[in-house]
Amino acid sequence: MGQGFFLLFATVCVIAALIVVVARNPVHSALALMACFLQISAIFILLDAPLPAVIQIFVYVGAIMVLFLFVIMMIDVREAVLQRFLPGPNLPALVLLVLLGIEMIALVFWSSRFSVALPPAISSGDTVRQLSTALFADYLLPFETASVILLAALVGAIVLARKDER
């Protein structure tokens, strides 16, 4: 029974992800992304992991999707399609993208943080306390980096939505 539900949720998730990429209308793409996020949270529930399921719904479906829809509604999509993303030749940007990708892969393979060792067992009573301690003590830098990236995305959305007054 559980495997059937997993296959159902995974199939719908993959189909929704394909619609995100293929859809021409950005609102349809955002709604398909929301459906994909909901399927992922359903898979978390099948895995008996209610905390990641709730975080998936609150953070991604709630906050991130509202931000995406806000940006889509603020930007004139028809005008943005006519403009090129990078004016001029794109070769320097492509070279930079490849170099950053190689650097990221090298850092992942040579870092001691990404080991195969299992994390220490967590007792069921102190799960949230240990999770929050690990998040704000051991993983403070990645947590703050993610918050700065989200802030930069918000500032970028405001700059893109602003009309030029020149």
Structure description:
The chain is mostly helical and 166 residues long. 77% of the residues lie in helices and 0% in strands. α1 (2-22) packs antiparallel against α2 (26-46) and α2 runs antiparallel to α3 (50-74). The radius of gyration is 20 Å and the shape is globular. The model has no long low-confidence stretch (mean pLDDT 78).
Helix/strand order, N-terminal first: HHHHHHH
Secondary-structure content class: mainly alpha
DSSP helix fraction: over 70%
Q: Could you name the ranges where pLDDT drops below 50 across 5 or more consecutive residues?
A: none
Radius of gyration: 20 Å
Number of strands: 0
Largest sheet: none
Core attributes:
166 residues, mainly alpha, globular
In short:
By secondary structure, the protein is mainly alpha-helical. The chain has helices at residues 2-22, 26-46, 50-74, 77-82, 91-110, 127-138, 140-161.
Spell out the blueprint of helices and strands.
Blueprint: H1 2-22, H2 26-46, H3 50-74, H4 77-82, H5 91-110, H6 127-138, H7 140-161
Helix pairs in contact: 1-2, 2-3
